[in-house]
Amino acid sequence: MIIQSFLGAMAITRSMSRLSSMVLFGALGVWGMNSCKEKVEDVGLTEEAEKSYHLEIVDSIRLDYRGELEITDINVMSGEILGFNFKTEELIIFDQSGEIQELYSRGGDNPHPINSPVSLGFYEEGKLLVANNFGKLSVFEKNGMHVKDIALPFTIEFHNWNQKKKIFKISDDLLLGQISGGRSEEYREYYLDFIDLKDGSLNPVLPIPQSSKYKADQYFGPLYPNVTRNDNFIYLLLGNEPVLYVYEIKGKALSFVESVSFASDEFVSAIPSENQKSFDWDRNYNEMRPGDVQFSNSFGNYIIVVYRNGIKNTEYNEELVNDPLKSREVNPYYIAVLDKKHNLVDESVALPLQAKMIKAVMPDGKILASKNKYYFGQEEDFETFYLLELVED
What global pTM score does this model have? Predict the structure, then answer.
C-alpha cells in the first residue's frame, strides 16, 4: 500500500580460470575492439550542463515483509519488482502497490534449488533466469516451478558484492553475462561472456579498458565490476574509478564507444600496492573510505550512475565508524546524470538522507530506493521503499 500521508507530512531534503582455448577465442573476439580505438576519451560537462537537478521523494511502497531483502531486477513490461532474501533464501515478487505476487523458498535440499544466486532476473515471457555458484544456469516460472537447465562448459564461479541481474538476453539463442570472477581474486582478463544457447559455447569479452587505472602495474583493491545493459549499449563500472565505460553490442562482440568521467576532486582514490598480496587493507578501509561506484541504469532521456566520494583519512574518525547516520551524512550517495548521447549533464545529485540506497529504476522512470531506518530511529515490521523523481531545479 502507498504511504501518502507520511510523505505529505515530511519535509523532503535533498553503493576458474578460463580454458586456454576459450581465452584465445575471446581474445580474437575483442582484438578488433581494442585495436580500433585504444585511446579513451574523457567526456566532460557539456554546455547544456548548466542545468541542475535534485532527487525528490514522490511516493513510497509499504511491503508487508521484513528481512534482508535485496532487489535484483525490475520487469520492464509489468513493473513487478524481484527481490531475494539471502538469509532465508526467500524469493519475493511484488508490485508498486506493495501487493506480494509470489513468495517462496527453494533453498536447502530442494531439487533444482534457488540459493546463492549470482544472477537473478526476469527472463522471456515473465520467467526467471537464475545462475548460482553450484554451476547451474536455470529457467523457472515466476512461481518457482523449474522449467529447464541451460548447459555450460564449465562451472559458474562468482562471488556477490551486489545481487543485481548480471545476465542479459541478446536474442533467442544468445545471452551476455557475468558468470565468472571474484572479489578477492587478481584482476581477470575478461569480465563478460557471450553464451550461445544452441551449443553452450562461450565467447569471453570485455577486458579492463586500456585507459583504466586498473591496467597500471599496481593493485587498487577489488574491481567489483558492475555491468548493465541499455538497448544495444553495455555500461561498465570499476570499483574505485569514477568513469563510465560505454560499449556497443555488435553480433557476438563488444565495440568500445567512449568513456565518461564523473565525480570531482573529492573522490578518494584507494592507496595502491604492487600486487594483491601486499595491498594494505587497514590503511585503505580502517583509516579512510575509498570512493566507490555502485551501478548505472537508464530511463527516459537519462542515464544515471550511483556513487560515493568516500572519506579522506584526515576526516575519518571513530565517530563515523560507530554512527551509520553520521557516516552517511559525511559520505552521501550521489548520482551522476547523463543524457542518451552520454553527455554528462549533472555530476553530483545527492540522494535524500531519508533514503538509504538506490536499488533500481522503474519502467516509468521513478527511482526505487530503500528506506534509511537510521534516519528515523525505529524498527518496523514491514519494509518501506521510496519512489523518487529526478527534478530539474
Answer: 0.85
